[in-house]
Amino acid sequence: MQTVNINSYGDREQSCNNINGMRCQIASITDKGRGKQENQDNLLTKSGESTLGYSMLLAVADGVGGLECGAEASAAAINCLKLWWNITFRSIMYSDMENIQYLINESLSAAIDKVNREIYERGIKENKRMATTLSVVFVLNGWYCVKHIGDSRVYLISRKLEQITEDHNLLSQQLKSGTFDEAKCSFKALNNVLTKCLGVKADIELFEQTGHISEKEGFLLCTDGLYKLLSVTEIGREIGIYHNHTEDMQQGIQFLINKARKRGERDDISVIMMKVKRKPKSDWKSLKELVTGRSYL
């Protein structure tokens, strides 16, 4: 994998991951909010080939801005995923191929549970308020699993842009239950109150999903700074225009961020876009034979 730093200027930090000759393209940007002292967002893009095939780990974390240590909480969440990728996932690669998806799914959930408890206990011990959202996508060839908590989002890119995660905030909760009363409370007020995130409680309940993606499909991960002032139609339209090359994807992400800024968004914005270029050559049968040395009928 070749990593190219596009540039860094002013409040903006940009990075582009260009995977030449492989099966996907990844572009990412994190942009510090206007007038803010620090960027409380953190993101992660990991990818590579192994005996299991092509794999990647993508994540965005948004430290809760109303708390004093939001940036530390989002950094802790991303660091735990780096450790999972470098240590746990490497050990899983040499495990039973029959249960590989189960092992990946369960170990990712366990890693997130662990870092949640660490953030929670650290906050109590140091008398600090710290919490973060976290949205994660892991892909192995065409199979994927999603782990999510908070109000950052994961969209599936196919023939349309589809939000596949739930927003864990009061607005979403009341709309889902049918109890929302616009006369008593505004959309904006409820939208800013999280009902779930990492670090607030000792135990958490993640949104989880597994599935398969095909050629020309992919994912868009973003923190709430991107979508609060942009509709899913607007985001989908730009994603559809800028999807042919990694450089185009980078431009598309930057265009969306600029559009949100022009409308007055002052929050940190982090975005990752991934698109599948072509289908994997190897299927599960050939991968099993490669790793185990056995013939599968």
What's the Cα radius of gyration?
A: 19 Å
Please indicate the count of domains: 1
Helices and strands, in order, run as: EEEEEEHHEEEEHHEEHHHEH
- Mean of all residue-level pLDDT scores: 81
Q: What's the number of extended β-strand segments?
A: 13
Instruction: Just give the CATH class.
Output: Alpha Beta
- The CATH superfamily label reads PPM-type phosphatase domain
Class from secondary-structure proportions? alpha+beta
Biggest beta-sheet profile: 8 strands, antiparallel
Low-confidence stretches: 1-22, 286-297
Proportion of residues in extended strands: 25-35%
- Give the number of helices: 8
CATH topology descriptor: Phosphatase 2c, domain 1
CATH architecture: 4-Layer Sandwich
- Overall 3D shape: globular
Distance between the ends: 34 Å
Percent helix: 25-40%
From the structure above, extract its key features.
single chain, 297 residues, alpha+beta, 27% strand, disordered C terminus
Fold topology:
Blueprint: E1 2-4, E2 8-9, E3 12-18, E4 24-31, E5 41-50, E6 53-62, H1 70-92, H2 100-125, E7 134-140, E8 143-149, E9 153-157, E10 161-163, H3 170-177, H4 187-191, E11 207-212, E12 218-222, H5 224-227, H6 232-241, H7 246-262, E13 269-276, H8 284-292
Antiparallel strand pairs: 1-3, 2-3, 3-4, 4-13, 5-6, 6-7, 7-8, 8-11, 9-10, 9-12, 12-13
